[in-house]
## 1
Amino acid sequence: MERPKVSCRDCSTTESIVWSKCPATSQSDSVAYICNDCYVTNLIKKKKEAVNLRNRVEVKQEPKVAVRKSARIRSIKSFSSTPRTPKAAFVPKVINYKAPDPVLVPTNSERVLCNNMFFSRGDIVCIQDENKTLYAQLRGFLTDQYTSKSAVITWLIPTKDSPPPNERFDPSTYTIGFEEDTPRPLSSMSFVMHAPSAFYMIKHHSHAPYHGDPFKAYLPKL
């Protein structure tokens, strides 16, 4: 005997794994059927509606807390009619410490390094002073706490046989001058040639005159 075909009440499908009975939509039908998919969908909707209904009931049952207004609370305008100006931001005071003045100390070394060049005691240097080219001999070195190099010099005085200072330097035509005690920065001097520290002392010393070849007493510029 063939089973009568049924259709779903909600989606009107005729194929389903499991059929469930449900109330009929019309008075003529005594029993109606729904498919398995519609049954699961309706079950999920009913659970969501029950949860929402329970949440609404709990919210309605929360008691209201009475808030008492204090008589001490007053408006800000009642205290002062003028608006308050904002306070300035706090800025810490910066203390600037001044570096101490340089203190020159004599150096016992026979040579010092300045501007990537070694200067030795007795070297001939060139100094530009008011567009004039002057020559001097290094007598000693000094340095300070900032590693700045200075030197004391002995001036060399040209003679009639000396060539123009701007062109070249001939040590045999210069004579020793006065010694300057004020240190000068070594960076302001230009190297000319190496020479012994007693080169001019030998020629002009009264007790030990030197009558030899003057070119043997110094080293020419390389």
## 2
Amino acid sequence: MSASDLTTAPLPGIQSQSTSAIIAEHLRERVVDGTFAPGSQMNEARIASDFQVSRGPVREALQRLVQEGLLESRRNRGVFVRELTDDDAAEIFAAREVLECAAAAVIAAKPAAERSAIAAALSSVVTELNAAIEAGNEARALRLDHEFHSRFVESAGNSRLARAYATIATESLICSSHAVGAHPPLGDFGTHHEALVHLTERGDIEGIHAAVHQHLTRH
């Protein structure tokens, strides 16, 4: 199904200096949740109508997502949702491991009080994650997994590392949500994340590396 075939309720008009960024965020969410399926064409005119804006900001938003690797521009054909393969998934999870381990090195060197605060923030996400797993809400559990690891990397306090991770994490969520390089059952997801929280609080960098590797190679 192409994007032009999708029936979506018109979105309220946007008045902002960051119109293209706001549109990109909404479109990113639609790619992740499958509203715009892999391989579907992005209809610039339809999107502009939905957002009640001119086509200029939409074009900028689409280009932003092309640069992020979520969409691809095909010469003389238009812009399409990128179709991720099993090889793509393997590369994405390998890149995640490198970036998360880099963040772990920074976090492990922080004072104990800072690590405890980071661990407490991560623990609150794990509580929600466990609730989602118990409720059988796989989609929410996957999003909370995404939130946990994004917060972990952001906690390093390195803005460039966080930006690099953001795109990879979104691609990873798409892989999991669309079962590309299908993820295993989520039964022990909570346990894995609880272990990462405790290792983070202790500043156990080797333990974090091992836990991250084990978690990501499960996919």
## 3
Amino acid sequence: MRLWDNAGALKRINNGLYVLVVLSLLAAAVVWMMNSPYFPIKSVKIDGQLQRLDAAQLQQTAQRHIRGNIFKADLHAAREAFEALPWVAEVEIRRMWPDTVQIQVSERQPVARWEGGGLVDSEGRAFDAPTDEPFPVFSGAAGARKIMVEEYDRFRAILEPTGLKIERLDYGQRAARTLTLDNGLVLRLGRLDAESRLRRFVQAWHEVLHSRADSVRYVDLRYKDGFAVRYRSGEETPAVPEQAASAANPHGDAEP
């Protein structure tokens, strides 16, 4: 049977040609739209709660990377350019018909300075950015940054009733925590039960230590029930809250 005598085959060929024509027209339409002067970007909107980012720098970045035809603009390259700015945490860019590009910027929230250089944000990520703002100093293994941020927030909340601020958080061997406060006082929290130990300090601060704050060098809280105090004079005195005095053994139960 000849092809032109096969109605079914001719119909399939006809349908295939029709699909090819439609696809070709669609492709041509896309190419025309992407290169047409009739769809220019007329407006770029930048939104976000910005405190440290320079609005002029954001506008300059947008002007360099988002221009021309709205369909042809390389938003991926624009996103990378914005994310390369020091204070930018995340950025979302989208086209809004017919002539607008909207940019939503999230700013990094710095929490601390990292010993050795740079800053640490609220997600525990290290970054470099110029700032003269005072931040506490974190010191430890790079992999501990996130948990240090989380614990710093909890430690700060526990200390709030005392009015004391954390100036430094050190993560030593096996995650032994040491805090340096804004009055120069050093708190050795150790590896275990750091938050409960810090609460014990807060209680003792109001009951015992506040009146002698200027003479205290450090408080060692690495004991099961109590703590030890070293004074600036060199004197070292075991001390515990009164209600725990009978149970405490400050010289025998220190965590290594």
## 4
Amino acid sequence: MALDGPARRNALGNGAIRGLDDAVREAEDDGIRAVVLTGTGGHFCAGADLKAPRMPGRGVAGPAKRLGLLQGTVDRLHRLPKPVIAAVEGAAVGIGWSYALACDLTVAGESAFFASPFVERGLVPDGGCAWFLAQAVGTRRAAELTMLGERLPAARAEAMGLVNRVVADGSALKEALELAVRLAAGAPDALMLTKRMLTAAGNSPSLRDYLDQEWLAAALDLNGPDPEEGVAAFRERRAPDFSRHH
């Protein structure tokens, strides 16, 4: 999936917001095993296009409708039952950063940067940005990133655990696609359940609560075809072929 409005650094107008939501819905198809989200023209996404016309509606109805659509897309992207990789070059700002945070993995060009400049524009962070950051780096670091809104270079984002790999500029998409190919060849059920377990780990108040979720995920996985193929491949000293059972 590519955000394609390079003249405005892929800032999202109403049409682009709806288009991305449609693309995420299409990515729910079981035939799609991994997803890469990127932007064209050397940037990921400069956020919402503040110069775009408001969505129809009186008073707060228009902005509320737009925010609801943005939030729904972020939520669907985050809950896709397959690996999702963000390939980031240039700017990932505002809702653009939220989209990247909603992905499972992020590959960034070395000159890429991230920012949440909502407060300096009199706005509050949207698209789950504050939630994702607090989950990933804790509330104090999240406060710094959201309240000050300073640019976060790719190298520092990697050091903070917000980026998985930093690569040469112009190489983020290539690296992300290579990762997607590897993941698409993996065990679909195991990957889906691992995503659920990672979410449960962040939301569980105790290890005991998490282990209950882990037990359920393991039971579901063992009842499917993936473990049989994985163990057989190990015994036969070959690469597993999970596509035979899906």
